[in-house]
Amino acid sequence: MDLKRIFVLVFDPDALSSQAISGTLREAGYQVSLAVNEVDALSLCEQKLYNVVLIGFEPNQLFAVPFMDKVRSLSPDSQFILMCAGGTIRTAVETLKSGAFDFLPKPVDGARLLESVHKALEHQIIVAEDPSVRARLRHTVGPNIFVGRSAEMQKISSLIGEVAPTDVSVLIQGESGTGKEIIARSIHEKSRHQNGPFIAVNCAALADSLIESEFFGHVRGAFTGAITDRAGRFQLASGGVLFLDEIGDLSPKGQGDLLRVLDDGYFRPVGSPKLVKSNVRLIAATNKDLEDACAAGKFREDLFYRINVVTVYVPPLRERIEDIPVLIESVSRHFSTKHHRRPKKFSPEVVRLLQSLPWPGNVRQLRNIIEHLVVTVPHATIQPGDLPAKLLSSASREPGFVLKPGMKLSQVESELIRQTLLRVTSNRSEAAELLGISRRALHYKIKRYGLSNITAK
Fold first, then answer.
1. CA torsion, ordered 367, 368, 372, 374, to nearest 10 deg
2. What's the N-to-C CA distance of the chain in angstroms?
3. What residues are paired with 34 via a beta bridge?
4. Which of 27, 87, 129, 415 is surrounded by the fewest CB atoms within 10 Å?
């Protein structure tokens, strides 16, 4: 869950209580504002829409319910959690009847607090009337794996910022599990059509006989079994993004159908005499080298040029291991909240072990391993002995990096320097000696390849 987009207001006249509660929420990753009086709390609500508002009060105080009404006039979709010291069951029932989502007794238990906030957000997705609120929540259902401090991820972030406000077609290339769909969603969320739909299609799963109907829809009676009109993916994605995943596996017929609508700007539902204007932004993704596929006659060259206006290449996780500590933190925080576990810490030894793995499944594999550890390890700090035996076996192998035919010499040189700084030594003089170049030459190459922030594990 990208908690940077979730805003929580803690309004509690008890300063010590409010500091403790806000600290727990901030540690979990939420964006938290504090207020100890009603004037400041309402002023904050006038400036920002809060997803959740927590209100602390004493049993003899009556401001909580009227305060909720005032906030609702500013932010109808806010969810309220009331907190009271020494409150009775009757107090809890009355607060819930007044429209609060939940009631927590003070002192508030941290795990119970995080669970309540998480459930309030799930409820808000269902009941929110404001489409911008729904859109913001709709894309926070998974951990934020689009994080990293490597030069590669910084370049991707910069490129997303450039292309998102436009309507150009984007091709995202990278191995399976690198997070291509997350990048596609990030482009969509930063675009002017962010409140429009995001429709994903797995091209590898489309049968030739169904491609036209899947893409363009059909009308009743168009073929046997067409008992009613059905909208296709181009219609469902109207005003938003059509994400074509694994487009390299699209059949020749599908490639022709897709090229036709991209060239003409119109499509015809199967069995319909009417043309429909296409109103989608196309983002495609593949784990194949489409240029090689074009040369081999397996992918249409004209279609490749239509979908490849801008290319985003996502490197495999093994080539950006400096991002792993940040990914561990992000994914662990998400699953601790989702599964109602106390936040876990990963010892430096575990982080180093995870950085030494080959990661054939990339970020998806890392995500699954972190979820497993968060759920199954009972203690607060995860140690090497908590890792599955197969992982420890993989980590014990001598690390390296893959050279592929056709790689540029600059890519090989950059990766060799990066791996030396990461896995051997971050001392520039020692690294230069190992690489057989002068310290000055190494400094120049580090700057050229954007490796200034590399430190050894």
1. 20
2. 27
3. 10
4. 129
Report which listed range, 47-51, 105-109, 378-382, is most confident. Answer: 378-382
Structure tokens at 208: 């030739």
Q: Does domain 3-138 have CATH number 3.30.1490.20?
A: no
* Cβ burial, residue 456 (10 Å; 0-12/13-18/19+): middle
Q: Distance between CA atoms of 231 and 254, rounded to whole angstroms? A: 17
Domains 3-138 and 400-457 in one fold: no
Residue-range domain boundaries for the chain: 3-138, 151-313, 317-395, 400-457
Task: Annotate 361-376 with three-state secondary structure.
Answer: CHHHHHHHHHHHHHHH
pLDDT of 305-355, one tens digit each?
Answer: 999 999 999 999 988 888 999 899 889 988 887 777 888 899 999 998 898
Residue 423's nearest CA partner among 352, 363, 359 is: 352
Report pLDDT digits (tens) over 189-226: 889 888 888 888 999 888 888 888 889 998 888 887 77
**Residue 152 CA to its chain's centroid (Å):** 17
Q: What is the rounded distance in angstroms from the CA atom of residue 241 to the CA atom of residue 196?
A: 8
Q: Please name the helix (run of DSSP H) or strand (run of DSSP E) that holds residue 269, with its range, or none.
A: none
Instruction: Identify whether the C-beta of residue 307 lies closer than 8 Å to the C-beta of residue 169.
Output: yes
Of residues 432, 429, 423, the one with CA closest to residue 457: 423
CATH 3.40.50.300 fits 151-313, yes or no: yes
- How many C-beta atoms lie closer than 10 Å to residue 227's C-beta? 8
- How many other CB atoms are there within 10 angstroms of residue 453's CB atom? 12
Q: Is 252:296 a contact under the CB 8 Å cutoff?
A: no
The predicted model scores a pTM of 0.61
CATH of domain 317-395: 1.10.8.60
